[in-house]
Structures are given as C-alpha cells and as structure tokens.
Design a protein that fits this description.
Elements: H1 5-25, H2 29-52, H3 61-91
Length: about 100
C-alpha cells in the first residue's frame, strides 16, 4: 500500500480530533497541554504531507514551517509547564477549574 495524500490527511485529522478532545474534556492542566501538542503535531503532518505531494521542483517550505512550528511548540510547552508548576505550588492541585480563584 503506497501512502497517499488522503491517508496523511485522515491521520492528521484523527490526531487533531484526539488532541481537541483531550484539550477540551480534561481538567488536568498537563493533559490539556498534551492535547495542544497533539494538535500541533497534526498541523505539522499536514505541512509535510502537502509539501511532499505538491509539485516537484519546489523548495522544502513545508519542512521549514514544520521545524519552526516544533520550536514554537517547545517554547509553549516550557512556558505552560512553568505556569502549571507555579499554580501547583500555590494551590497544591493542577485542576483548571480551581484557577478561577486567581482573579486579582
């Protein structure tokens, strides 16, 4: 079976839906961050798939965008985990429903 663009798009849509479900249905901050990372991985897969199956004399634009997106995702994960650690130190929980008490 040769991989086609449609196969990559179906896998990407599945990853995105799983990430969206994880981000919207969980109360634990770490699982929300994991869901966001899954959605970014799905977007990267789309960039690579459209680059791979596009017209052939082309620069590796999709790869460059995917690498940039991975760097942004790493920075987002660092900032998100730092915020989760700060909230955990203050409230001793990572339940996002209790973050309404942070209103200042």
């Amino acid at each position: 079976m040769t991989p086609t663009l449609q196969l990559f798009l179906v896998v990407s849509a599945t990853l995105f839906c799983i990430g969206l479900l994880a981000a919207l249905s969980r109360r634990h901050a770490i699982f929300i961050l994991i869901g966001i990372e899954l959605m970014l991985a799905a977007a990267n897969l789309n960039f690579i798939a459209f680059w791979r199956f596009g017209p052939h004399p082309q620069p590796p634009t999709g790869v460059m965008i995917a690498i940039f997106s991975i760097a942004i995702a790493a920075a987002e994960a660092v900032v998100g985990l730092a915020m989760v650690i700060a909230v955990y130190r203050h409230f001793r929980t990572t339940d996002v429903d209790q973050l309404g008490q942070l209103k200042g």
